[in-house]
Amino acid sequence: MxxxxxxxxxxxxxxxxxxxxxxxxMKVSPDGFDLNQLLLNEPRGxxxxxxxxxxxxxxxxxxxxxxxxxxxxxxILLKVCLRALLDRHRIKxxxxxxxxxxxxxxxxxxxxxxxxxxxxxxxxxxDYTINHKRIKTVETDLQLEIHNISAIKEEIxxxxxxxxxxxxxxxxxxxxxxxxxxxxxxxxxxxxxxLLNHKFEWHEISIFNGADISIQDGRLGHPYHLISNSQFYxxxxxxxxxxxxxx
Amino acid sequence: xxxxxxxxxxxxxxxxxNPTRTVLAGMPELAGETIxxxxxxxxxxxxxxxxxxxYPPRGHDISSGTILLPPLKPQADFSVIFIETGGYLPxxxxxxxxxxxxxxxxxxxxxxxxFTSVVLDTPAGIVEAExxxxxxxxxxxxxxxxxxxxxxxVYVDYKSHKNVxxxxxxxGNFYGILRAGDLGLALDVSESQEIVGTSMAIRDIIxxxxxxxxxxxxxxxxxxxxxxxxxxxxxxxTVVVPPGGIDRSPCGTGTCAKAATLYENGEIMxxxxxxxxxxxxxxxxxxxxxxxxxxxxxxxxxxxxxxxxIMGRHDLYMDADDPLQAGYLLIPxx
Lengths: 247, 334
What we know:
The complex is a heterodimer of chains A (247) and B (334). Chain A is 17% helix and 40% strand. Chain A has 247 residues and is an alpha+beta fold. With 334 residues, chain B is an alpha+beta fold. Helices cover 19% and strands 42% of the residues of chain B. Chain B has an 18-stranded mixed sheet that branches. At the A-B interface, β1, α3 and β17 of A face α4 and β18 of B.
């Protein structure tokens, strides 16, 4: 029978999914169940999911952020979370907000919650370093479109190199990014957008998932869209106590 | 929150790991008098809703669901349309188990113990599901398959693998059934990308060389699904569903095709029970309950028993300002 209910909501930013849940909702788990894993992994989550939990204290918002394939665009996800909590009147409007995550405190100004500056790009001859991440770029003859996905995956597998954080395939005005494991990143990644803006002076960029990005004055605007308000249920007879991951 | 958005209310379940999004509210009026006509109207005029409900960012590669409608036939509790990332299905086993579990546990049908019957009007015809209920919880759901049969056995060369035996059988879809070890593959989630790529390549080879056609419904004329297995008392399997994803459950219709193949090979008889286990460890129980020879094939009715669990209730918002309202899919559409 259903023994646990967790309230939360999902949003997306250009297709990048963020599930937001108050820490107190997750404080008590049914015996044997790992709520963090359950809400991130299949069947409740999936390989695309980013799970954010938060707890508000008088001076800080404590946040955890996790993803199966690694968290991209961390600052954007944190800002958008703040924006969504403000829109839902869950937190009060302040001039700035301090978030404690992974032992560090990050502070975001209220007027900068909707946009984020691109990173500085360092060209190292054959590759690029952006936000301490190494990016390899490869020009390809492949049309970077969904109908070519099998060939694109083969090319990514051929070019993937664990010395780099991201691989970017380029073809004409198209691009596609993959992480160091060769997973295609269907949503935009700020480091990759910084590279494309620097290298090609692109200000309008189409993303593989169909989203169109606009860069103005060196900043990326990142509106969010509400996917759902949700109640997640845990049945104590469920055969999956942590869920599973299939890429 | 965007209150101008259109809302869809769903109950989400998983059947042995495979998700079902049962849509309770939010659908527009679909044209047609029958569930088949309403499915066609959804396909032709409202397909963006399917994509909205099952594609990322609201779903993932193998998300599926049912559109629940008031009964269009007097004997039915509900009429249903089956949707998935690949399109529309006339019948789906894991979705039937998931939706019936949700309907019984959430009280949308009159719950009786120890058994509650749920009758669904599907595009494939009436499906009667028997739900075993204990203390309000659905323990198992059993339904009877459509006519399932073994069509033929073919042999395929793929890369260094020569003369690989593939049984082609029908259980609601056509399945190419082959031993994973014959391709050097293990049925492990870590090999899922290779399993999908190899399976789809072999399927395409078979469709190029062989005619795969239902003898009584000739419009069903392609091998669409592949099923890799490992021998054992409990048969471990994984089904690769179009356009290219791994079924997390043992697959209801795939289990029916497997049962027909086991019968063809003399490995099961009438009333025998066999257990089919998915790549994620979930199990379906199958039993061959009747067989009938017609023309050159033997058609079987198979009972499938499986379990589902409710995962959540969602209010999904369709916002006209959302550029990804219809989602996206990193798999070519078929």
